[in-house]
Amino acid sequence: MTVAVVTGAASGIGAAVSRSFAARGVQVVGIDLRDTDICADLSTHAGRRAAIDATLAKTGGTIDRLVCCAGLGPQAEPASLVASVNYFGAVALLDGLFDALKRGDAPSAVVVSSNSATLQSWAGSPLRSAYLSGDETGVHDLLRAVPAEQAGFVAYASSKNAVTVAVRQRAAAWGGARVRLNAVAPGPVNTPLLQAGLKDARYGDAIRDFVPPLGRRAEPDEIATLIAFLCGEDAAYVHGSVLFVDGGHDAAQRSTMF
């Protein structure tokens, strides 16, 4: 039986991905803070290590699919927590479970990024450099220097940009191991995470006004459908890609950049 590991499995996109896999007869191992198979805090080194160890124990060290959905929105406090989960948690799981994926059947992994990753240029940014060098303390220090009313958005957008870069940086090594790795970049999706953001006095209006050309927010199942495709045999030659699933928002914002 195909085995899939899904982080952030208890709600939102992660829950939709878990349902989608289960409907296809896939055995799902969920990771989240609560209400799933493995309860672990991906914002900490210890929590990441516990999640990896428990996953390897539960799967016998062989995984066919890995989907990193766990993430926090800009409203989470402190902003450093957003960076720790969205980037360092995701990368730790990718690298920590890579060997288990190499033992899998037609293995593939997908990371949930965001179209917010492209809303500003991060080229040459000290934040991006700190992420990609693995300097979690440095990222936290840089975020503390950002004005409080902007820190959450900066943490969110920079972490999603950096994790997308991390996916692309791994394309050569993962491809050589015959493990496919891609990212999806949703826009606003009707999840508990989005609802929490809408209620936030700092970011609620900006999130509310972030309406894509299709004129509506996505549903979690719509993102899960793309992820299931990327994990399956119909996407056997899709590797190292970033697929926007945002109702046309990125195209409208950056029509000459691709």
Gist of the model:
The chain is α/β, with parallel strands linked by helices and 258 residues long.
Task: Please write out the topology.
Elements: E1 3-7, H1 12-23, E2 27-32, E3 38-39, H2 45-59, E4 65-68, H3 79-96, H4 98-102, E5 108-112, H5 126-132, H6 136-144, H7 148-169, H8 171-176, E6 180-186, H9 192-198, H10 204-209, H11 220-231, E7 242-245, H12 249-253
Parallel strand pairs: 1-2, 1-4, 2-3, 4-5, 5-6, 6-7
Number of DSSP E strands: 7
**Low-confidence runs (pLDDT<50, min 5 residues)?**
none
Mean pLDDT: 94
Structural class, by secondary structure, is: alpha/beta
Q: What proportion strand?
A: 5-15%
The Rg value, from CA coordinates, equals 17 Å
Secondary structure: helix percent: 40-55%
Terminus-to-terminus distance? 38 Å
Q: How would you explain this protein's 3D organization?
A:
The chain has 258 residues and is an alpha/beta fold. 48% of the residues lie in helices and 13% in strands. It contains 12 helices and 7 strands. The mean pLDDT is 94.
Characteristics of this structure?
258 residues; alpha/beta; 7-stranded parallel sheet; 7 strands; 13% strand
